[in-house]
Design a protein that fits this description.
The structure is a single chain. The chain is 41% helix and 14% strand. It is built from 16 helices and 11 strands. The protein has 2 domains: 168 residues, no CATH class; 207 residues, Transposase Inhibitor Protein From Tn5, Chain A, domain 1 (Alpha-Beta Complex). It is α+β, with helices and mostly antiparallel strands. GO terms for molecular function: DNA binding; transposase activity.
Length: 442
């Protein structure tokens, strides 16, 4: 991994890559909430502790975005309103397509400054999917219906999304999403086909058993990438024979099953030549069945697949630290923009971590994202200072602190089991907060 232009302030990078798009339909040049201002306020809102619009407006009033503000009378006179109404309306006027363009340009700029981790001369990307809970509104439920179980229809809308992350830095590509339930529900494999087009040419794509099916493997190979997928035991037996050794590898020619040929007639004559690796790896309860088109030694390939766990940690961080567990937008456009801005914010923090790791000569994956996130929040006012000397000093100090924020390395097992205790509730799980019923007077 090579860091280019290391001394450059990464927060300034965001200002430079905001696309030049006409803001005419949102007001004239005297408006405060121009496109660069609003998009960076959305970013600061996602990076802030509570993620409220009021925090973003306070950052604007505190001078953190002075470099982006237009030269207007209200700005010169210090008459920017502290209310959130103007900012909220400006957020609503930005389209998801605009935020997609911002996301693509920002992540591309980060990738240009911090090269993706390459192994055996190829970029290595981790592939996985997750879900996110949405608000209960008519627009949301129409686009992302709620699920249903034995107790009936759920309350919250559910979005499914799939992402590609660099194996070492964690910097992501723009994700793909769709409804998890309802008549328009999409599978993770179909969403994964969309994100494949954003992967660098000739990448190694690593996926778990959910992606270890012939149709998707063929899509990966047809896109010019190399595949490394875990297979279910039943699929491995079908591919390698009725009995498989506990350890070993052998060449295979993977062809679609009768069911797959019926579902995908265009793949009837397709085949993929590769290797099936069977092993018992540390951290896996059962035998591991891997299919790959790579030619490296089996031990190296098994070790590389073990890196897939990093993406599980990335998704946990996005949901927990960056609050993607539940998106609070009240419309389809709002939640899509929230998701995209969160990916941009995540990429910027990961870029700081990669730069700090490069300076310290350590692996970025041993650094704590939560600590890096907190340090950037605490020091970002000085990073945005108009004084170039102060900015550079703060930048160097920040990278030094991040490089020392390492994850704990436990040599012993926990002395007590990890358990989750239930939390007490002050209110019942369901309650109607409407007006009280009228009572007859005596």
């Amino acid at each position: 991994m090579e860091i280019k232009a290391e001394a450059e302030n990464l927060l300034k990078l965001f200002e430079r890559v905001v696309p030049v798009i006409s803001w005419g339909e949102f007001g004239g040049g005297g408006q405060i909430y121009t496109l660069p201002v609003v998009v960076e306020m959305m970013l600061l809102q996602r990076l802030s502790e509570h993620g409220t619009q009021q925090e973003a407006v306070h950052a604007l009033l505190g001078g953190r975005l002075d470099r982006l503000l237009p030269n207007s009378k209200r700005v010169q006179g210090g008459r920017i309103s502290a209310n959130t109404g103007g900012y909220a309306r400006a957020c609503g006027r930005i389209t998801p397509e605009t935020v997609e363009q911002v996301c693509d340009q920002t992540l591309a700029a980060l990738s240009g400054q911090i090269e993706a981790e390459a192994k055996w001369g190829r970029p290595v990307l981790l592939l996985d999917g997750s879900s996110v809970r949405l608000e209960h509104t008519a627009d949301i439920l129409k686009a992302f219906p709620a699920g249903r179980n034995q107790h009936g229809l759920g309350h919250w809308g559910i979005m499914k999304w799939v992402c590609l992350h660099d194996v070492r830095t964690g910097i992501a590509q723009r994700p793909a999403w769709g409804p998890m339930y309802g008549p328009e529900a999409v599978s993770e494999q179909n969403l994964a086909k969309k994100v494949l087009s954003r992967a660098p040419a000739g990448s190694v794509i690593i996926g778990d058993g959910g992606f270890g099916i012939f149709a998707f493997a063929q899509e990966v190979i047809g896109s010019g990438h190399q595949a490394l997928f875990r297979l279910s035991k039943a699929r491995a037996l079908s591919l390698g024979g009725k009995s498989l050794p506990v350890q070993g590898e052998f060449l295979v020619c993977w062809k679609p099953s009768a069911q797959e040929r019926k579902k995908y007639p265009e793949l009837a004559d397709a085949e993929i030549k590769g290797r099936l690796i069977v092993c018992s790896a540390k951290g896996f309860r059962d035998s591991l069945y891997l299919f790959t088109t790579l030619e490296q030694e089996a031990d190296e390939i098994v070790a590389l697949y073990g890196e897939r766990w990093n993406l599980e940690l990335d998704l946990r961080t996005l949901k927990g630290t960056l609050r993607l567990e539940h998106l609070h937008g009240k419309s389809q456009a709002a939640v899509e923009k929230e998701l995209l801005i969160a990916v941009v914010a995540y990429g910027l923090v990961r870029a700081f971590m990669a730069t700090a790791a490069r300076r310290a000569g350590v692996d970025p994956r041993i650094l704590s994202f939560t600590q890096a996130y907190g340090l950037i929040n605490a020091m970002s006012p000085k990073l945005c200072s108009p004084d170039p000397v102060l900015r550079q000093q703060t930048y160097d100090r920040l990278l030094d602190y991040i490089s020392k924020a390492k994850l704990p390395q436990r040599k012993k097992k926990r002395s007590y089991p990890r358990e989750v205790w239930g939390r007490g509730k002050s209110f019942p799980s369901k309650h109607h907060f409407g007006p009280l019923p009228k009572t007859k007077s005596k």
